[in-house]
Amino acid sequence: MAERILRSVRMGIDVGGTYTKCVAMDNDTHEIIGKNEVKTTHDHKDGVAAGVVQSFKNCMNENDISPEDVVFVAHSTTQATNAFIEGDVASVGVVGVAGGGLEGFLAKRQLALKDIILDEKVGRMIKVYNTFIKKKMLTEDIINKNIDDLLAQGSQVMVASMAFGVDSMGEEQLIHDCAKKKNVPVTMASDITKLYGLTRRTRTAAINASILPKMMMTANATESSVKSAGVNVPLMIMRGDGGVMEIGEMRKRPILTALSGPAASVMGSLMYLRASNAIYFEVGGTTTNIGVIKNGRPGVDYAKIGGHDTYINSLDVRILGCAGGSMVRINDKCVVDVGPRSAHIAGCEYACFMPEEEIVDPQIEMVSPKPGDPGDYVTLRLKNGKRICFTNTDAANVLGLIDEKYFAHGNANSARKAMQPVADKLGITVEELATQILDKDFEKINACISSLAEKYKLDHDSMKLVGCGGGAASLVPYCAGKMGLQYSIPENAEVISSIGVALSMVRDVVERVIPNPSQEDIRELKKEAADLAVSSGASPDSVEIHIEIDSQTGKVTAIATGSTEVKTTDLLKACEEPEACELALQDFGPKICNVVLAEMTDKFFVYKGEKDGKSPLRIVDSKGFIKVQCSDGVVEKCKVKDYEAVVEKLWKENAVFMTDTVLRPDFFVCFGPRVCDYSAVDLEQIMLLMNLDLGDREPEEDVLIVASIQEI
Questions:
Q1: Cα separation of 597 and 606, whole Å?
Q2: Which is nearest to 97 in space by CA: 167, 169, 172, 207?
Q3: Which stretches of 229-311 are DSSP H helices?
Q4: How far apart are CA 498 and CA 566, in angstroms?
Q5: What is the pLDDT of residues 404-440, one digit of tens each?
Q6: Distance between CA 548 and CA 532 in Å, rounded?
Q7: Terminal CA-to-CA distance of the chain, rounded, Å?
């Protein structure tokens, strides 16, 4: 009997509203080994955890993956988001602490949280009870009495929050330890964020605490099931900001998993599709998630939960109620709207997925899919008694926009027969009806993309649309055509979220308000972020830190990323210069001419073109990733020992002088296998950040310095 060859396998499981999908990937080559999907187990006694484990075990069995093959396993989860939507939350007791005098008076008011409304229409809320202890009175006996009082009032979980607790965590830790001794789930506000803003920090901690019991139950069920399958690597959980953390960390900060579904799909685009610069679409049946990837990083912002501002970083994903299965709303003259209700909510099949011979004598029936919905959603009653509807997918099939290879491809004749009675009612052709339908979607999508482009300063000519999800082909080609943008719908688009989970890196973030950070401040922040990433499951040797400084607010952010194992090999095929040039030409598009290789090292190529008197640049790495897009810039190659002089020269030469201000360039530096970006108001801060990265490198090493010129 031949000896079995061991493999290194990464496994990612994405929990969707309808299906839970597992993907197994080769750890070295990123090739897909196998896939499995099961219906999401909302009604199982173990909740969605049952489906996670089922799809995981199925994928292992079907693809002959043994437990010792698995080097990484992670899943996204809808548990936190669903808990807020459904109001499945625990009541929270807040133990507030502050000093005396005016500080204590003000802090007591800021700590006294009101009930946190999640959905005003149906009265869903997080019930909050409050108590306050003066800092000088803080003893175990007094803490225990206050906790007992909160429990008697109805609190199920606790929050420890102290004014300026981010500077001194000992007091919050004492309250935390007292609660743990009583077996009461507890959150320290300073564990969630190190930013000031007492009310917002306390509210974020209360939201986190409210889902602790639910999330711990799911975490325990999933972890024990994965271990029972013989897999010994730690179970990782997807965060809303696109990273993963060990399940033990999730037990402390479950709020970080909110919005991890959209995060998984963005990370799939980033890691698997090499989409370094794109507007990302994930088109499902009911909703479309739209986000930004710029220069190899997804857009990140603070999440809002139930309309409340929090200090939780999550990917900046916009969720629209128009997707592949969205139903059409009409009046006597035209299409009024598309969505937000989808066909499966109304219990209808899409017309294009019905056999053509079944669509006989379709009669218009206007419906309200859910109680309280408007009654202008259109369905068709067939002669055989079935009720169906037509959707964005039907409209796109009628217009011939969906290639046979795509998941959304269906029978255009079936769709046309179903849409004909409505077209007749409106006095237009079926093609005109299909166009009206997709135009309604385009209005929403165009407004969303324009908003993202403005926020992230995206160059229209450099933008691409990347479509994923089963319904991608129903919307992306039409919208791309209307906007004059390139688009792609890649292979395996329907499981891109699971791929994103499988390829995710450990991530953690530390934020501080430091008005004039010194090199020592930055160094301490980097160490804290690195330690957090390691505690979340990253191998210490794999951790990299990215620093951002917001000069207006004084906020300094350290973002740590790392892998769960140190990679000794990297079998991704190296990209030679001709291939890199072709990738750059494709990314530049037809409007940019005279493209040349401006500079290169053994790990990076920088290409320069011409357009309207400007010099757009692309940085391509040796793996074929386009790391940076720059609409106008210059690049210089120099030795590490000379970088300060080069940066100072470029800082002065590429300033844009306005009436009341001076716009300075942003900088990108390529050294070793890394490209780092730096933006700051003054040259001193730029040098401070660069020195932290370049100060200990060999003086004779070649680096590439790119100055990105600001647009007026």
A1: 6
A2: 172
A3: 247-252, 260-272
A4: 22
A5: 888 889 999 999 999 999 999 999 999 999 999 999 9
A6: 17
A7: 70
